[in-house]
Structures
1.
Amino acid sequence: MFSFFKRPEPKNIYFVRHGETILNAQRIRQGAEGALSEKGRTQAKFVGERLKEFPIDVIIASPYERTVESAGIINSFVNKPIEYSDLLMERRNPKEIIGKSYDDPEVRKIIDRIDKSFHEGSLRYSDEENFDDLKDRARKLLDYLQNRKEEKILCVTHGIFLTMVIAYMQYRDTLTAQEYVRLSYFNPANNAGITVCRYNPRERKNETGGWSLLAWNDYGRKFIQ
């Protein structure tokens, strides 16, 4: 008797950064709160229009206000089940800068230290998620996604964390804080940009663990689904 086993199929993961928020437009550093601006709602509608023809099985969103709102607008076009996961939250900012302007000299000093300068992965200013924390959460997210039963997953998340996910996907455990700073500086994630990744379980022993990046921060042009 012959036994046939279905080989696991590749998964497509669509990452979307939330639409612009009122605080984004005002250049205010955010925590979990922050509603979409009118422009942000328009961006979310535009993304929903683009994604409505995509073969999406489920939406997983960060529980922050701006991602919940973005996911809801997108889902008015996609009409799929929505789940929320803390794994998709934005990097937690140090308490000293939340609610303050990017242009505040003290805020700029802190941001330069934790975001824009080369530093050790363990550097911690106060109560923020540091590089090592964020890298570990990116690893947990990829493990979580590759073990989901769905093959087409839409994740609604945030810019800093999304950049970390893609950086970790490419470099895995060899990723350093210095490499991440370079990547994030030259490859920003825009509001409502779409990033497409694929996980192929047949290639899980390769250097990226079976993950590949198909499109980064795509906002207006078409790409292969």
2.
Amino acid sequence: MSGDGVAAAASWATWTAGLLLALDALIRVGLSVRVVTRRWTVSTTLSWLVLVLALPFAGAVLYLLVGENRLGRARVKDHADRPTAAPPPTEPPALPRRHAAVAQHAQAAFGVALRPDNRLELLDHTQAPLARIVADIDGARHACDLEFYIWFAGGGADAVADALRRAASRGVRCRVLLDAVGSRGFLRSPAAGRLRDAGVRVVACLPAGPLRALFRRIDLRNHRKLVVVDATAAWTGSLNMIDPRYFKRNAGVGEWVDAMVRVEGPAVADLGAVFENDWRQEAGDEGPPPPDAAIPSAPPPPTAATPADPPVPAGSRLQVIDSGPSRPAASIQRLLLTAIYTARERVTVTTPYFVPDESLLIALTTAATRGVAVTVIVPGRSDSRLARLASQAYYDELLAAGVRIARYRAGLLHTKSVVIDDGFSAFGTVNLDMRSFYLNFELTLLVYDRGFADRLGTLQARYLEKSDPVDADAWRERGHLAHLLDQTVRLLGPVL
């Protein structure tokens, strides 16, 4: 190459490098300004600033993909305009003052009524909740609506699919709404095809793909677990449509341990409204189910399910909370903070993923330092190494304040529950991490009832019996590298 050619190539390389440096600087400055003006928590803002400024171009790509809750204007507006179930009673049932504060917060933030006179039945993983759901579907006369984050074929999940096909053959309207990412394998499987062939409508929720990533944040997921049968009975809790004997058998964490609650009473209408709103987002409004005379009654087949604990007597008061990115940021977290600050005697939490932000950390440690018995039960083994490391980074502060941390050893504890004192419970799909608080569509029951709190507390106590307590002294004596790794991953906690 001639001298002129070499000089021209060098000049072009210099010009290109300068352009890339200028473009990188412009992107970093522009996104930094964007991050600062988003009005997030300080920890979240700083985490994103570190990623944007420390990673040339890659930080910008990461932020554009998952940095903001881009749900789509039409979807956000439709959620804001969505109808609710029946209006609240003119005279809501009386509650103790501290519980009334939580109920008022829920009413103001979510527009949900306090529903009295509900009958609740709590079933843990040993009591075959899927078999009970099959029995409800086999007795359906009008409609069966199911909504899940994960559907994984095998065992009890196949029995539910068989029941849906039988119901559809009787003329029952059957609809299944599944998260497009969590249930990707099932949605493409022959099992889903057999449901569709039988007349069951199976729809993917929040479809994801490279093209959609340009316009919407694709990791905003529908994490709800919900079954509504004939508008007379409903189920929710932590259990996906899986049989733990078949799900992730090679993950090395043991069987997933879940719990569900069966609801009868006025709150079923609120749970049905959650499904209808989510369904309308993806498939449109189908109108009411067929009239009563159109479908003959079908007795449920005999089941070998283990009998559940006796149901809580009629009279349970509860609110149905459907949180998600279409709501104001962290609405469910703020509601739980309000409940924790009312605690006088105990706060017991079970969650598979525990990555609190500063506000939740302060609420739990403050409760412990003022004499409240605070217990956090988490899995001893997790399917997410990053989440486990980020969780461990908070143990020192929690243990120093007197919070008891226990690690469940008999499988992956997946139940999401909070019991406060003797009359308030939160039960459903929400984990105590930033993904559940900010990014996922979740479903939670706030129950103001001593009987249900006692039943849920008994279940938590059984989990505690199969858990190993974290000793504060032993935890502090871990190696420096272990502490450094935990604290490093903690920096990513707000964006995990």
3.
Amino acid sequence: MEQFKSELAEILEVDSVEMTQELESFECWDSLTILSIIALSSETYNVTLSAADVKNAKTVGGLYELFNTK
């Protein structure tokens, strides 16, 4: 989980993330960020996600669960 949070924080251009934080609350949240998350899921975790999957995750924790259930 810590590796995931660290990688996501890097994509979101922040020092750290908490599982309860809403993804849309991050200043750099946009379509390029979503694409970066999709690339991370595919390249690092071997998980195929769509943009809708990422948007529907809502929170960092939701995204983490998505990575682990797909």
